[in-house]
Task: structure prediction
Amino acid sequence: MNMQLSENFTGKKLLRFTLPSIVMMIFTSIYGVVDGFFVSNYVGKTPFAAVNFIMPFLMILGAVGFMFGTGGSALISKTMGLGDNEKANRLFSLFVYTTSICGVIIAVLGIIFIRQIATFLGAKGEMLENCVLYGIIILCALPFYMLQFEFQSFFATAEKPNFGLVVTLAAGLTNIILDALFVAIFRWNLVGAALATALSQVVGGFIPIIYFIRKNDSRLRLIKTKFDGIALMRACTNGSSELMSNISSSIVGMLYNAQLMKYAGEDGVAAYGVLMYVNMIFLAVFIGYSVGTAPITGYHYGADDHYELKSILKKSSVIIGATSVSMLVLAEILAYPLAKIFVGYDAELMELTLGGFRIFSFSFLFAGMSIFGSSFFTALNNGLISALISFLHALVFQVAAVLILPIFLKINGIWLSVATAEVMAMIITLVFIVKMKDKYHYI
Result:
């Protein structure tokens, strides 16, 4: 039975409603790891490095869809809360059509300039050729990749989170199966890996288009619409924090690698890679929960239901707190077996990874609140505060920590910098929540 945004959500209902979004985000993270596994083990070290080198740039482009999805979802759910379902469908259609057009334009420009971009980023020789080859194939599917990002937010707004999970599973399984077929069996090497990823993105973006363009029992449907520059601007403003987070993460990742090369060499970069795989999966829980609760928050904000806003914030704080503690305990327990799986072949690297893991794990204790807080303010249509939280968290605090702490603590300072940045981000999030309580009446 589908739950509606207008319901009064108990803690149990919140978890049931957000579970598909959580699983969807976790699964997306996991199949990304599997994709890397096939390239690394069947294609080679240089192509694997090329994929990881160019991927942050491609993800930044895809995040434009996430910006329209999260920002647009906040506007649509608020409109639903006001009782104007016809306008909600027009806005939904406007955002989907705009994302499709932007995707085509950005893809064409990306294909034209991919070599110059990869060269500017520092790729040379064989790695440059691999970056260009992989990038061109992925860019051909970019409009669908952007739509896939966008619909991850819109499924919850349409009160169809379970169908969103099915689509994500279909896209993920397509990627995994085609990776095995194209790379491991047919030996199409990097072309095969790129085709597998591109086709999975087509699946993730095309199935929702077919669903929403036909009659369905969700709250949303693709219909005729008209250009609304103000609505597009508000969606971009609301969703700018998500776009900023993706851009900042890429910049910070490069800075971390530079610092690790300085203090620990290639082993440090390898150890950091293991931590990032685990970090993606763990943080996907918080991201999925935040994406799932956002349309509920937006709806009740539009309906001027202060009681339900208070309830959502209070219950979410408890859920995130309990999850954070559980993640810390789980990470400490799994530190050794996970390090063994990835780098058990090298005793020195194993020791470095395990030591880093023990310190890095404390970041999970604080990360959830800033992720939820940013999404919460996006849902309240306050893109400025949402963007500030994301900017301070993803760029300012992490850059400051990773530049300063290693001066005093060497390699341990790099591992500790993530947790330090998360503590600072949590504090600033709580400050904003308290500061805005009189405006939104959620406390």
Q: What stands out?
A: The CA atoms of residues 5 and 296 lie 5 Å apart.
